[in-house]
Amino acid sequence: MSSEKGTTHDWELFPEKYATDASGNFLLKKDGTPRKKSGRAKGSKSRGYNYSSKTKARMSAERAVRNKRRRVETVEAKLRQQKNSLNNSKELLKKLDNKSNNKITTTDVIEDSLPRLQKEVKDNVLFKPNDGPQTEFLAAPEIDVLYGGSAGGGKSYAMLVDPLRYAHRAAHRALILRRSMPELRELIDKSRELYPQAFPGCKFREVEKLWNFPSGAKVEFGFLERDADVYRYQGQAYSWIGFDEITHLPTEFSWNYLASRLRTTDSEIKPYLRCTANPGGVGAHWVKKRYLNPAPPNESFEGADGLTRKFIPARLEDNPYLAKDGRYQQMLEALPDVQRKQLLEGNWDITEGAAFTEFDLNKHVVQPFDIPIGWERIKGIDYGYASESACVWGAVDPTDRTLIIYRELYRKNLTGVDLANVITQMEVQDPYSVQGVLDTSAWARTGTTGPTVGETLQRAGHKLRRADKNRIQGKIQIHEYLRVQQSGRPRLQIFNTCPNLIRELQGLPLDKNNSEDVDTHAPDHAYDALRYLIMSRPRATDPFSQIRNLHLQQAYTPSDSTFGY
């Protein structure tokens, strides 16, 4: 475009301020004047103009007026809605008056109103729980509830909806947990679809993984990959805590600790613990003990900690969206036997990846009986302070060399002196001092000048030697002892008064990276004590040898012929 002769236009002096087309021509507005390029000029520190203080004040006042006008329009819209509803009611009353001579019944009124009401409900309902377990879970009055069983029962969705019960109260703070942060992603994505629709104006803070609601309420997402991660929530207070797939927790330590964080200053808010799970997993044993063993499903009970609890079983058929066409069920039916029974049938007695699948409560657990005085006795000790110290006592039946585990110790926070005293007290009824094997780490010095745990136990009169800690061979030996003999009796039987050893043998999983060993992240202290004991090669001796030697006070040596091979 050319300019008039003798006239110099702004776009000619400052072409960089204006946009051009592919041919280099300046672009024009509708009125024929050149159009400036979008954006701010190079080197400018702010967008737009630098307004005067009076102009800014005027613009602020205009903005306030516009905001007030929008609020007024919102109120007017609601008022119109109410007027329309009132007019509908008046029309209905008029209709009733016109039909008064025809004996109009309540049924007639309902039939006239039902189509409109159904449409209103359909248009305004964001979430409706499925009939059955999902509804029972969301309505449960108990403080601590497990919703678990079959896959596809709607557990995860219920876990997202339940903390919204108090989202209208400023003091409400909820915490939703999974084992790891990547596992949280699916829940977070679902919350992005649900929460803004349920509560317009709520905002998600990605860094903190935190939802802020207009009322001031908060819903936080977190993880517990190991027990130590629980201390990231130290000093916090929550009115609702939920854990999705709680059987992924190896121990109940974290869950018990979080229960101590459950409190609120709002008297209108009732604190809740909520968790979901499928059968199996590294923590299935303690979950089953906490929620399933004390009472039948759907029956409320009170735990030893005073919390009311309930287990609500989930079934695939309770979720019509997945069970409708049968495809999801077919997929579950095609799984391996153990997984199929867990995820389709919701069977909690089947342990996936169990290290000792041959362990059978009916075969390996027996009622206590008096151990004959002449049976060889031995103990295995696994020491821990922060974790549990475990000791198991065994006796060998000379008739068929069956090892009977007749006593256990399972306690944490024991010093060497404490452990020596407790073991001494527990052996008061034994006819003689029981020889034993001790974890080699208990003999190690940690920079102190005092005696080691092993030395402390020896000074207290306990006859001990260092344990054989070959993990693979020890596990193989336990398999051998669990094998049923020709007599129909296994070589290892355990008194039912040893619940911790029974629990570990029943639920201890295999190491995912080494199928020859157990998962050391799972509770294995009683198992280790048993492994040390068996690796000491206990054997049956002359039934009368111990009786003959009861009066002898001989010094103990590791080469003692009565102590293993």
Characterization of the model:
The protein is of the alpha/beta class. It has 2 domains: 133-343, P-loop containing nucleotide triphosphate hydrolases (Rossmann fold); 361-548, 2-Layer Sandwich (Nucleotidyltransferase, domain 5), CATH 3.30.420.280. Helix content is 34%, strand content 16%. The chain has a 9-stranded mixed sheet, with helices on one face. A 7-stranded mixed sheet has the order 10-16-13-12-11-14-15, sandwiched between helices. Strands 17-18 form a two-stranded antiparallel ribbon. Strand 14, helix 14 and strand 15 (464-466) form a beta-alpha-beta unit. Helix 13 (416-426) crosses helix 14 and helix 15 (471-482) crosses helix 17. It starts with 9 loop residues before the first helix and ends in a 17-residue tail after the last helix. The model is unreliable at 551-565 (pLDDT under 50).
Keyword list:
Rossmann fold, nine-stranded mixed sheet, seven-stranded mixed sheet, 18 helices, 18 strands
Outline of this structure?
This protein is an alpha/beta fold. The chain is built from 18 helices and 18 strands.
How much is the average pLDDT? 80
Number of domain modules: 2
Count of distinct strands: 18
State Rg. Answer: 37 Å
Q: Output the CATH class name of the largest domain.
A: Alpha Beta
* Widest beta sheet: strand line-up: 3-4-5-2-6-7-1-9-8
